[in-house]
Amino acid sequence: MAPIAAPTYLTPEAYLELERKTITKNEYVNGEPLAMAGASFAHNFITFDTAIQLNNQLMDTECQVASTGDLRVKVAETESYFYPDIVVVCGDPRAEDNVFDTLLNPTLIVEVLSASTEMYDRDEKFTHYRQIDSLQEYILISQDKVQVLRYRRHEPEWIPTEFRTLTDVAPLLPNQCELPLQHVYRRVKFDNGN
Questions:
Q1: How far apart are CA 8 and CA 88, in angstroms?
Q2: E strand or H helix that includes residue 73
Q3: How do residues 32-52 score in pLDDT, each as one tens digit?
Q4: Which long-range contacts (CB under 8 A, 24 or more apart) does 127-132 make?
Q5: pTM for the full model?
Q6: Nearest 5°: phi and psi at 64?
Q7: CB under 8 Å, gap of 24 or more: what pairs does 93-97 form?
Q8: Which domains does the chain have, with CATH numbers?
Q9: How far apart are CA 33 and CA 43, in angstroms?
Q10: How confident is the model at residue 17 (pLDDT cuts 50, 70, 90)?
Q11: What is the separation of C-alpha 17 from the centre of its chain, rounded to a whole number of angstroms?
């Protein structure tokens, strides 16, 4: 994640106004817009296949899945905005305003890791996401190896559970769905033959 220009403080309102007029997507942290990186084939395959798995299992529940990368999530406590790869909201979605492009109450967020974003997604972004009261699970999916890391809120902590083999199945949103890793990685070819 890199600033889009020389660091200039933008108010959240100015960021949203600019973001809604531009073609490119920028996240927003500490008053600074951050340009989003492009995505690889593996990243797109994993995102799409994971979203399909979640959507199919949650179709008849109160939960909805969004995976276009166009739905912004606001962390009100830090006045930050992010574009998760996949967002699940259970119950009525709450938007920041009547444009309905900024979600306030995600239940589950999925980020597919790349070399350029992995540390940012694991550390700084998770620090922000943890402050969203409605968020129950944060899922990190590696695109370079078979690895899914699920963080589940268990007040006052977030409990990590790692899944590392294609036969693993990650339970998500207690008793609502599961994520078989063989489906997550079905179209991904790894350099090491996995």
A1: 32
A2: strand 72-75
A3: 888 877 778 999 999 999 999
A4: 128/29, 128/75, 128/78, 128/80, 128/82, 129/73, 129/75, 129/82, 130/158, 131/75, 131/77, 131/78, 132/73, 132/75, 132/76, 132/77, 132/105, 132/106
A5: 0.89
A6: -125, 145
A7: 93/64, 96/16
A8: 39-184 (3.90.1570.10)
A9: 23
A10: confident
A11: 22
Sign of the CA dihedral running 108, 112, 117, 118: positive
Nearest-angstrom CA–CA distance, 42 and 127: 26
Q: Tell me the torsion sign for CA atoms 158, 40, 184, 65.
A: positive
Under 8 Å between Cβ of 81 and 72:
yes
Among residues 36, 118, 101, 99, which one has the least CA distance to residue 66?
101
DSSP string, 92-151: S--BSSTT--EES--SEEEEEE-TTTHHHIIIIIHHHHTT-TT--EEEEEESSSS-EEEE
At which residue do the structure tokens 């220009």 appear?
5
Backbone angles phi, psi at 36, to 5 degrees: -85, 140
Name the 3-class secondary structure at 30. Answer: coil
